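Forum: Protein Structure Q&A
Topic: Joint prediction for protein chains with partners

I've read a bunch of threads here and the consensus seems to be that you should model interacting components together rather than docking separate models afterwards. I'd like to see that in practice. Below is the full input, 432 residues plus whatever partners are listed. Could one of the regulars post the assembled result?
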Amino acid sequence: MSENDAENRAKERLKESLSVTMDGQASELELRRVLADVSKQSSLRELAGRYQLIGDTLRGQRAEFADVDISKNVRAAIAQEKTPGFSSANESETTGRASLSKKSGSERVIHKLWSSLGKMAVAASVAGAVIIGVRHTNTDHDNLLVLNENEPQYLNRALQDSQKGNDYGVSHILAGNNPNHHDVDGMPDSPTSVRSSAEQSTKERFYTYALHHAELSAIGSGQTALLFARLASFDH
Amino acid sequence: MAADIDSDYQLVNRVKQGDKSAYDLLVLKYQNRILGLVGGYVSDFQEVQDVAQEAFIKAYRALDKFRGESAFYTWLYRIAVNTAKNHLTSKGRRLPESDIDVHDSVFIETIPNLRVVDTPERNLCCDEIEQVIHNVIRSLPYELRTAVMLREFDGLSYEEIADVMDCPVGTVRSRIFRAREAIDREVRPLLRQGRR
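Posted by a regular:
Agreed with the consensus. Here's the joint model:
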């Protein structure tokens, strides 16, 4: 009996989802689930038709074709047809914007040219901003060193921690990125050499990120925002 | 209704992604109205169905040109009118003097001499179905009746109905479904008798 109950409850949930879908209130996941079942079950399609009939009647429409269902013939006719035009990636082009296909050939070429130029301009400006940011950071770091000399309590935390054994990854950077420093556990010879090695590694990583970011900006990939976040987190 | 327009866009976008069962739902949603509209141009019952089918197939093929700048039904309506007119022209029949306005298409039964040829049996079936639906609505508990009427008659979204009825959206969803189920239980046997 419990299996039957579970099956009935599942059917009820499915019918409720159909009801919600007909009202345009289903989530994307629910919509996909309902459509998958609608394609397999004729009883669900008939139910959808009856829900619509109920709504039409309540709105005062005459039910003179209540016993007619042309959906089966339409379904058979379009079964062999190709999917009309667009994929999900192009959805934004179909809502409220003029279609590229309406433009002439030369207009399309000009449009593509401007699009490429725009992307390159964005990539160049982003790369420039990152480089300026790195230089600015290094300048600030130099100022901080001056401060450090005058006020020992603001000594570079990385240096302090490296002396204590918690080096915020400086020794790792030294070991991983600087072939001249292989001693992962060893203490740096002097604060100056630690700082310059760390700075060098930092610069190298920043340039790598900036280049990669500029490349992806040019391609127009969705990864650009992620890289920016990585850049920002690395900066901090 | 804004929620209806959203529903159509949701389904249209699914069709464009290759999900033909979404188009099924669009056909089920609008076939009654399109049949009624075509019936204002074409008098033969079988021809009405053929022309309406053709209109839906044409609309499917042209779906990539649907920009979403108007409601889907408005766009579909224009295709159906053109299809009906082309059909009349191809049969050498006279076109009506003026087109049926999209907003009047649902009231086509009030326009004299433009209805599909009705049989007494068809009229009886139609009247009976309408009567049953209205009777069941009247007998529903207040909450279910209110929820389904706010949705079907006033076109409110679930959130708006939840505001009006001061209940969660999930409760609105459940009430509307239970109201429809109660009506469907009474309507289903009537349709089984008459459906082709």
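Chain A touches chain B through 61 residues (CB under 8 Å).
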